[in-house]
Amino acid sequence: MQSLATDPNRPWLRKILGEGAAEAQIGELVKQGAGWLATFLRSLWSGGQTLISVFSLVVVTPVVAFYLLYDWNRMIAAVDGWVPVRQQETVRRLAHEIDVVIAGFMRGQSAVCLILGSFYAVALTLTGLNFGLLIGLLSGLLTFIPYVGSLTGLVLAGGVANGAVLA
After folding, report:
1. Model pTM?
2. Angle in degrees, 0-180, between the axes of helices 148-166 and 132-141, rounded to the nearest 10
């Protein structure tokens, strides 16, 4: 491009670009093109990673979950075969105890989330906050993750209340 712009057989092009400006403009265009290309490639790489993550979440996770459910008994039988015969009863008992404890924890956390969600929803609705019921239920359900539910409720309720005051 630079040789084309500086070609003496094309005076009309030099007249349009200006004397000496062709070299500077071509160099600047090349810099801008390289910067644009680098930005495009970074964006493409980031988008590709996101696409792979979404693909694995939407496609791979349900497929793996299906096969885990489908082959669960065979997997347990295979793992059971790895355990020495003398310890099989102990391992089974411990696995059952772990299952009972985790199930109890899940039931307890679910109950806490429902109680907190109901409390938050009623309290925010009684204070007259717009969308108080929805914000309360959402923050109560997110309480399953420590700090996330209460902080989400605080931010959403504060934002809605601030928006109501400004309007």
Report:
1. 0.54
2. 160
With vertex at residue 56, the alpha carbon angle to CA 53 and CA 57, rounded to the nearest 5 degrees, is 85
Helix (H, G, I), strand (E, B) or coil at 147: coil
Q: Give the side-chain half-sphere CA count within 13 A for 137.
A: 4
Q: Please, are residues 114 and 140 in contact by the beta-carbon 8 Å criterion?
A: yes
The predicted pLDDT at position 20 comes to: 55
Nearest to 95 by CA among 107, 106, 103, 105: 103
DSSP string covering 75-142: HHHHHHHHS-GGGHHHHHHHHHHHHHHHHHHHHHHHHHHHHHHHHHHHHHHHTT-TTHHHHHHHHHHG
Mean pLDDT of 57-71: 88
Q: Using CA atoms, how far apart are residues 73 and 96, in angstroms rounded to an integer?
A: 15
Q: How far is 149 from 143, CA to CA, in rounded Å?
A: 4
Nearest to 135 by CA among 145, 125, 147: 125
Residue type, 58: V
